[in-house]
Design goal:
With 657 residues, the chain is mostly beta strands. The chain has three domains: 221 residues, Immunoglobulin-like (Sandwich), CATH 2.60.40.3140; 173 residues, C8orf32 fold, CATH 3.10.620; 223 residues, Jelly Rolls (Sandwich). Helix 6 links the parallel strand 16 and strand 17. The longest helix is centred in the middle third of the chain and has 15 residues.
Length: 657
């Protein structure tokens, strides 16, 4: 569940708060005459010349607690593409914050163009209605330096905030500063090789703390396919850990998260009216109380995901169980609360799990911060299965792929007598294994005796698990007349010119996602696979498995592989060859590419054949039984992936006997 609000209340109470010096930003400015080092920059389309982030937390005279946030950047633009991409400077714009300083300028050699308030424009996102402000830059050309900084006063964020310092271009002069009142102690951790921030023992202001990090340069990290790019960038996370004024510690700890979540999701008491409505709702869903817990969970999930509209909007009503059940609309928190209430009523053991999207931010098992707590799951230990309460395209056993193969915070309810509480523990969320995610094909092909260029194809394709997630969970929303369009699109992967006349869809039912495979059965004719060459025929038998991805690598791989989800493909091709023809190059079918590590086969593509009379049977088996590999193993992954593309090109030469 995204952006769920965690009720963490921290009281900064103390007998007396020493007045602070003026905030750092009041004396902050750029150099009137910039002195950036531009040596060895001509070949780079863009170069970061400065990247500074500074944060100060402060108590004001009225005892309110605020945050000042500064960002200061300068970069050299050396290409038309980069000028087009960076010709605007977007400014923070929010009703809950105040922009108290902003400057921008364009530097062309000795000529400096300073922008003012008249150069700040306001625009609106047509889809969301959100407004934003930006500087419209003037005078930018190849070789220009663009420099800007802004300072925002806002409601403080201190429970775990991430700051990036790496981009897709090289950056010089990196700085980070964090200031806080003397009683507030922060804990800062760097990731992916970024230098650690240090506490400044010699800071001149005895009423404030200061942490800082400096780096001379950080090399670019360009985006690469099949990588967790944002998770791999250099960044740091800061969080408030202690308040010396009241001797509190672990302010951002998961224990506090658990304490604040429990009263909402597991209230000590509910009204009798709500309890009665929950009982009626279970009957409305049609839960058979004699069925297994897994069947009960599936019944509840399928009903809620096809009958209740879930919105990201925050509203008290959308968290009220009675309102949700009567109006069939809920917030993310509200629908999760309904699931939990129904499971409690049916005495189904479960745990809340909160984690992160591993492609954006891998959950750190040792550093506790709420920045990692973005995605909600419900875990059922007896069946070892996960349920995502808000994603309509997910079902029991198939949570979103990006939250698996990752750590998470598991919250279990513990009862001692009449007293119950929550206990949190960081554990691993295992990925769904490859045998539960497959895209299998059974193909029978025969040649038209009157026209050997034409092949009759009987195709049965089975998709299960994540491979059916793009359509099977939404089957209840697809009109009958649109089914053929879906089948047509799937068959066009073989040949764009194929026209489907008759077809059969089996298990095209949202209730069967993760239970039974989606099955597509068609018979078509095509001349796309055979080409006549004199008295011979060239038969692209590899094309019968459909188009395959081919990976190219013209640069050294930098990032680790993130493969999405484990999967497998089992394909059987049965070819009835023309009686008067024989195959000259059967051995071209045989491919055996695999990657083994520590004695375990992690991925493979293997094809082989069997010829009995005029019947040629080809078996293609492909699997990827791991999601993540270091960059040093990427070449092996590419080799296996490309083996499937190589098979796709296999063309048999049919010649007269």
């Amino acid at each position: 569940m995204k952006n769920i609000y965690l009720y963490l209340i921290i009281f900064f109470t103390c007998s007396s708060v020493i007045a602070q010096e003026k905030p750092f930003y009041e004396n902050y400015d750029w150099n009137v005459k910039p002195t950036y080092d531009l040596q060895e920059t001509k070949d780079q389309p863009m170069l970061g010349l400065k990247h500074k982030v500074a944060i100060e937390f402060a108590f004001l005279e009225d005892n309110s607690f605020v945050e000042y946030y500064l960002q200061h950047k300068a970069y050299l633009l050396n290409s038309d593409d980069k000028i087009e991409e960076y010709n605007k400077i977007y400014l923070p714009y929010s009703s809950s914050s105040e922009l108290i300083a902003n400057k921008a300028r364009v530097i062309n050699g000795n000529k400096i163009i300073e922008l003012d308030e008249n150069d700040i424009l306001t625009a609106e996102n047509e889809e969301t209605g959100d407004k934003y402000k930006y500087f419209a830059l003037k005078g930018v050309q190849k070789g220009s330096i663009v420099e800007f900084f802004y300072i925002v006063k806002k409601y403080p964020s201190y429970k775990g905030v991430r700051a990036f310092f790496q981009d897709d271009y090289d950056v010089k002069n990196i700085e980070f500063d964090l200031y806080s009142p003397e009683n507030l102690i922060f804990d800062i951790k760097s990731f992916n090789g970024l230098k650690e921030a240090q506490y400044d023992e010699n800071f001149s202001d005895e009423n404030r703390n200061h942490w800082s990090m400096q780096a001379e340069n950080i090399t670019a990290l360009e985006e690469e396919d099949n990588s967790a790019h944002n998770a791999n960038r250099k960044f740091l996370i800061y969080k408030l850990d202690k308040n010396l004024a009241n001797n509190s510690s672990g302010i951002s700890s998961y224990d506090i998260v658990v304490q604040n979540l429990m009263p909402f999701f597991y209230p000590k008491e509910t009204s009798k009216k709500t309890d009665k409505q929950l009982e009626k709702y279970i009957n409305k869903i049609g839960v058979d109380k004699a069925s297994s817990n897994k069947e009960k969970i599936q019944k509840i999930e399928n009903f809620l995901k096809t009958n209740i509209f879930v919105t990201d909007v925050y509203n008290d009503k959308l968290e009220d169980l009675e309102y949700i059940m009567s109006e069939s609309v809920a917030s993310n928190r509200g629908i999760t609360k309904l699931y939990i209430s129904l499971f409690n009523l049916l005495d189904i053991k479960h745990e809340i799990v909160i984690t992160s999207d591993r492609t954006e931010l891998s959950f750190d098992q040792s550093y506790e911060a709420t920045v990692f707590l973005n995605e909600f799951l419900i875990y059922f230990p007896e069946d070892d299965l996960y349920l995502d309460p808000t994603e309509i395209g997910s079902r029991l056993g198939y949570p979103p792929t990006e939250v698996t193969d990752n750590y998470g915070l598991f919250i279990k309810t513990v009862k001692v007598g009449s007293y119950s509480s929550g206990v949190g523990e960081v554990k691993y969320i295992d990925a769904v294994t490859s045998d539960k995610n497959y895209d299998n094909m059974h193909v029978k092909a025969s040649f038209n005796k009157e026209n050997l260029n034409e092949v009759n194809i009987s195709l049965k394709r089975e998709m299960f698990g994540y491979y059916a997630s793009f359509v099977q969970p939404y089957a209840h929303l697809i009109k009958k007349e649109s089914e053929k369009d879906f089948v047509q699109a799937m068959v066009e992967n073989l040949d764009e010119g194929i026209q489907v006349d008759t077809y059969k869809l089996e298990n095209f039912d949202s209730n069967l996602y993760g239970v039974k495979p989606l099955r597509i059965i068609v018979e078509v004719n095509s001349e796309a696979f055979v080409e006549k060459a004199g008295n011979k025929y060239l038969f692209n038998v590899g094309g019968l498995i459909g188009k395959q991805t081919e990976l190219y690598q013209d640069k050294e791989r930098k990032q680790a592989l993130d493969n999405g989800f484990m999967r497998r493909y089992d394909r059987e091709l049965i070819i009835e060859l023309p009686a008067e023809m024989k195959v000259a190059n059967l051995n071209d079918i045989n491919i055996d590419q695999k990657f083994t590590k520590d004695g375990e086969e992690l991925m493979a593509f293997k094809s082989r054949y069997k010829l009995e009379g005029n019947t040629l049977t080809i078996y293609c088996n492909e699997h990827y039984s791991i999601n993540k590999l270091p960059a040093s193993d990427y070449a092996d992954y590419r080799r296996v992936i490309n083996a499937a593309a190589d098979f796709n090109k296999v063309t048999l030469v049919l010649e007269p006997k």
